[in-house]
Specification:
Radius of gyration: 14 Å
Number of helices: 1
Helix content: under 10%
Structural class: mainly beta
Strand order of the largest sheet: 3-2-1-5-4-9-10-6-7-8
Order of helices and strands: EEEEHEEEEEE
Distance between the termini: 31 Å
Strand content: over 45%
Largest sheet: 10 strands, antiparallel
């Protein structure tokens, strides 16, 4: 699924995760109260982002030693970011920490986030 900018849910709240099977970002919007995948992208830009980890999903990973989707970035999808702020690398590894990490500390929110495949950068 590739989309032109006109087809993307720009300026809407989205939930994004890295899809291990497609090797792309899966973008979800709420449809009838449930999250539904509406696009797969190489890159995404999000404002007013929240970093969410389902603890129950994380515990399943730790117990089963098998990956599952349980960590998301939720925010407003935008067409690009023009910022003078420094962007720092953000990572999440369920075996090392229970939350997303930025420079070794938990991160829960960021004004702006750039997602490039598996890489995440935040103005934090």
């Amino acid at each position: 699924m590739y989309f032109s900018l006109a087809m993307l849910p720009l300026n809407q709240i989205v939930r994004i995760y890295f899809n291990l099977h497609k090797k792309k970002l899966s973008v979800q919007t709420k449809v009838n109260g449930r999250w539904k995948v509406v696009a797969h992208l190489e890159d995404a830009y999000v404002k007013n982002a929240q970093f969410k980890v389902s603890e129950a999903g994380r515990q399943r990973v730790l117990k089963q030693k098998k990956k599952n989707v349980h960590a998301f970035i939720i925010g407003t999808l935008v067409s690009g970011i023009q910022s003078n702020k420094p962007f720092l690398s953000v990572r999440y590894n369920p075996y090392e920490a229970d939350q997303f990490q930025c420079q070794g500390s938990n991160i829960f929110r960021a004004e702006e986030v750039i997602l490039n495949g598996r890489k995440v950068f935040a103005a934090c």
